[in-house]
Amino acid sequence: MNLLCTTVAFTAIFAATPALAQEAQTFDTEAVKVKAEALVDGLEHPWGLDFLPDGRAMVTERPGRMRILSGGELSEPLRGVPEVYARGQGGLLDVLADRDFAQNRTIYFSYAEPGEHGVGTAVARARLGEGDRPALEDVTVIFSMDNKARTNLQFGSRIVQAPDGTLFVTVGDQGRKDRAQDPRDAAGSIIRIGTDGSIPDDNPKPDGWLPEIWSIGHRNPQSAAWDPLTNSLWTVEHGARGGDEVNRPQPGRNYGWPVISYGVNYDGSDIGEGTEKPGMEQPLHYWDPSIAPSGLAIYDGEMFPEWRGDLLVGALKFQLVSRLERDGSGRIGSEERMFEGAFGRVRDVNVAPDGSVWLLTDEDDGAIIRLSRAEE
Fold first, then answer.
1. Are 183 and 211 in contact (CB under 8 A)?
2. Prediction pTM value
3. Mean pLDDT value across the chain
4. What order do you get walking across the sheet with 167-171 strand by strand?
């Protein structure tokens, strides 16, 4: 389906009902006036969302449910989701439609996978069945952490498909920070795999590294997106108390956690050796105090040309969207904090085919919020 057809289908399916339209709010931002409307609520801690070519959207709920949003209505939970470990920060996490979904109906999803010795981040692929009550078919795990731990903390985990078809997956350090410096352990890393779980030939593979690891030294990256401006992966990760970071992970590089950080431990004590060390990369941007970032979109739509190329980062702690403006070379400049306290904890940020921006709110009664251009 071409982009025009996708956008037309999307607009028709998600036109606001009168009830939702009455609840719409408008917000003045630095560059444009924005209308916000709740498309649906009643989701239990929604975590990930992605769009299908016919205008529908897939959404996950952390307790282990995946649903389809169509015509303003949520489907019943899809059958076929494997067992997930839904405690603390664990559960069913991100979801992504394959770039060739229209031909192969393939999706990918990440989750906290229980095992004999604990729990770890895993990624599965499946075929989305057809019909009124589609199920996940041919579910296959394509990545699973070997070194599972008994923890409820810091699983990552976003999935990004690069233009060459490979998958990047962010993996948290499971609350055990020293693991992020062990290249034989997937915890605290970015991994890169093929759509079948195979190892790409051009992965970095330094001596002693797991072959799937792209970069190490990450704490808990819950935000990732492909940037068409720099043709590369960008991630945003949680610091401890301060030190949330924006990075552009390069192959075989070390991003420092927990040896260097711009934050401190939750008890106020110092982390590691300071903010710099030879052989470790500096962030492109950091927050102190922490905003608790989750969800990243790099805006490339038509609805908000004022934001084109900017990073839109969700924040759990301050309940906002941080817009990081970039110059023509891709460097981050100023920050605008939008919608603070308006919707609750923002877990995910997505750009829809029509250029609107969709947010997920991480609440017991979570919602999907659509941001569109308000009439001047």
1. no
2. 0.93
3. 93
4. 159-161, 167-171, 189-193, 213-216
First to last CA, the chain: 33
For the segment 351-368, what is each residue's pLDDT rounded down to a tens digit? 999 999 999 999 999 999
> Nearest to residue 104, comparing CAs of 171, 169, 161, 62?
161
State the Cα–Cα distance between residues 179 and 136, nearest whole angstrom.
33
Q: How far apart are CA 13 and CA 69, in angstroms?
A: 10
pLDDT for residue 231 is more than 60: yes
Please give the Cα distance from 178 to 192 (Å, whole number): 21
Give me 66's structure tokens.
Answer: 């995946």
C-alpha to C-alpha distance for 154 and 88, rounded to whole angstroms:
9
- For residue 7, the surrounding DSSP H or E stretch is helix 3-13
Give 268: exposed, middle or buried? Use CB within 10 Å, 0-12, 13-18, 19+: exposed
Amino acid code (one letter) for 350: N
- Residue 173 and residue 179 in contact, taking contact as beta carbons nearer than 8 Å: yes
pLDDT of residue 56 exceeding 90: yes
Q: How far apart are CA 263 and CA 257, in angstroms?
A: 10
pLDDT (tens digit per residue) in 344-354:
999 999 999 99
Tell whether omega for the bond before 353 is within 30 degrees of 0, i.e. cis: no
Residue whose C-alpha is closest to residue 41's, from 371, 369, 370, 367: 367
